[in-house]
Amino acid sequence: MTGHGTWKLAAFQYYLVSKPIKPTTFSLQCCNLIWTTYPSNKHPDFIHSNGEELASGFPFPPYNCSRSYLWCGCGSGSGSGSGRWEWEWVWGVNTGNGGGINGRTPSGSSVPNLNEAYTALQTWKSAITDDPLRILDNWVGSNVCSYKGVFCADPQDKMSASTGPVVAGIDLNHANLKGTLVNELSFLTDMSLIHLNSNRFSGKIPDTLRVLSSLQELDLSNNQFSGPFPRVTLYLPSLVYLDLRYNSFSGSIPEELFNKKLDAIFLNNNQFEGELPQNLGNSPASVINLANNKFSGNIPGSFGVIGSKLKEILFLNNQLTGCIPEEVGLFTEMQVLDVSYNSLMGHLPDTISCMQDVEILNFAHNKLSGVLPDLICSLRSLVNLTVSYNFFSGFSQECFKLLSGNVGFDFSLNCIPGRDMQRPQPDCSVIPGGELNCLRIPARPLVCASFTVASKNTVSSSSSP
User: Which residue ranges does the record assign to the Leucine-rich repeat-containing N-terminal plant-type domain (predicted)?
Assistant: First the structure.
C-alpha cells in the first residue's frame, strides 16, 4: 500500500482495563506509517511520513500479517502505570480524497468488477432514512471506491476471477446513520470487515450475509438491532471479531458460538437471557463480554476445563446463581474476571490462586460467604480485588496486607467483625446459600498443574462411552 493522501489507521489491539497504561514509544515500519512518541496525558498521534496526522485506534483483535491484504506491520512499545493496554497489529488504508485504492482511482478496465458493489451500495443507501452528517453525499456515480467509508483493494484470493479492485471493507463508525441493512450487501463477497458501530441501524441482520466468506471483523455495536441472536454470524468461516454490544438482541445464545474460532466476543448490554451454554469454555477467544444481560442459572461446570487462552471474561450484572466453579482456576492466563452483580453463593474456590496473571477480580454484589483465603490475596499480579456487598465473615493475614499495599481492596458491606462499613448484625444472622454444596479442593497443598491434569481427566472420563 503506497501513495499519498490521508492514511486512516484502522485498528490495533487495545483492551483497556481499569486505568490505562500509555506507551511512551512505539516503532512501526509499514505502509510509510510512523508512530511517534507522545505525552502520557494524550492519545497517540499517528503520523504519515509526509507529516499528515492520522486517526487513533480502537479495540481490535490481533491478526497475522499474511492473512489479509488489508493488514500490514507490527511494532513494539513500552509504558508504565496501573491497568493494561495491549497492542499487536496495525493496518492502514490510504483513502486519498475519500475512498479509493491506495490513493488511486480505479482504472476503467476494473470498473465492471464493481457493478454488483454499486448495486449493493445504492440499494443500501436507499434504505438509510437519515444521514445528519451527510456522510453519503458522495455516494454517487459508479466509482464506489471513492465513496466515503468504502475501502477497495486488489482481491486477496489470487485465484479470483476479478481482474481489478474489489470492495474490501466498509467503515461507517460514528456516522449516526438511521436505516436498515439490506440483502444486497451479500454482493460484496470480498469484504474483510464491516464496521458500523455508533449508528442507528435497526431491524435484523440479513441472513444473506452468510456468503461473506472473507469477513473477519463484524462490528454492529451501539445500534438499535433487535430480535434473536443473529445466527448468520455462525456461518461466517473467517470471522474472528464479533461485536454486538449495546443493541436490543434477545433470547438465548447458541452453543455453536463458542465452537467458532473467534478471538473476541462482545455481547454485553443486550437483552439475552437463559442459561449459558455448557461449552462456554471451548471458545479460543481471548476476550468474552457477557455483561449487562439477563443470563440465569449456573456458570457452566465445564468452564475452563478445555484450558482456554481466555484473558478477560465479564459476567457482571446478570442473574447467575450457584457456585463459582473450581475450574475457573484453569484459566492460567486470565487477567480480568468480573462476576459482580449476580446472585452467586458459597465460598470462593481456592483454585483462583492458580490465576497468577490475574489483575482484576470483582466479586461484588453477590451472596458469597466464608473467609477470604490467603491464596487469593497473595496473587502476584493482582491490581484490584473487590468483594464488597457479600457475606464474607473474615479475611486472612495476606488479605490484611493489601490494606497497606498498592492493590485496591474493597471489602465493605460484608459480615467481618471489628471492621468498619459492614452489614448490620441482623443481616449476617442467616448466610444465603448456607446449605449450598460447592465442591471444595483442600486449600493446602494445591498444586495447580496437578489440578489442571485431574480436571481434564475428569472431563475426558465423563465424556467416554
Answer: 115-152
Shared domain for 137 and 235, answered yes or no, is yes
Contacts of residue 88, defined as CB under 8 A and 6 or more positions apart, other chains included, come to: 12, 13, 62, 74
CATH number of domain containing 119 = 3.80.10.10
Say how far apart CA 286 and CA 309 lie, in whole Å. Answer: 6
Report the distance separating Cα 74 and Cα 42, nearest Å.
22
pLDDT at 459: 42
Domain stops at, among 72, 91, 110? 91
In angstroms, rounded to a whole number, what is the distance separating the alpha carbons of residues 228 and 433? 33
Paired strand residues for 409:
385
Structural domain tally of the chain? Answer: 3
Beta bridge partners of 404: none
Percentage of residues in the chain having pLDDT higher than 70: 66
Are both 408 and 266 inside the same structural domain? Answer: yes
Residue 406 in any domain: the answer is: yes
Residues 154-188: tens digit of each pLDDT: 886 655 555 678 999 999 999 999 999 999 999 99
Say whether both 338 and 440 belong to one domain.
Answer: yes
Long-range contacts of 118-121 (CB under 8 A, 24+ apart): 118/142, 118/144, 119/184, 119/187, 120/182, 120/184, 120/185, 120/186, 120/187, 120/188, 121/147, 121/150, 121/167
pLDDT (tens digit, 9 = 90+) per residue, 266-308? 999 999 999 999 999 888 999 999 999 999 999 987 766 555 6
Domain that holds residue 405: 259-460
Cα→Cα distances 122→115, 133, 137, 322, Å: 11, 18, 12, 52
3 state SS of 430: coil
List alpha helices for 127-196, DSSP H.
Answer: none
Query: Environment class of residue 399 by beta-carbon count within 10 Å: exposed (0-12), middle (13-18) or buried (19+)?
Result: buried
In a domain, 1, yes or no: no
Euclidean distance between CA atoms 435 and 115, whole angstroms? 67
- Which of residues 223, 251, 279 is at a domain's end? 251
How far apart are the C-alpha atoms of 69 and 63, rounded to whole Å?
12
What nine digits make up the cell of 191? 469484504
Side-chain half-sphere of 421: how many Cα atoms within 13 Å? Answer: 6
CB contact at 8 A, 386 and 362: yes
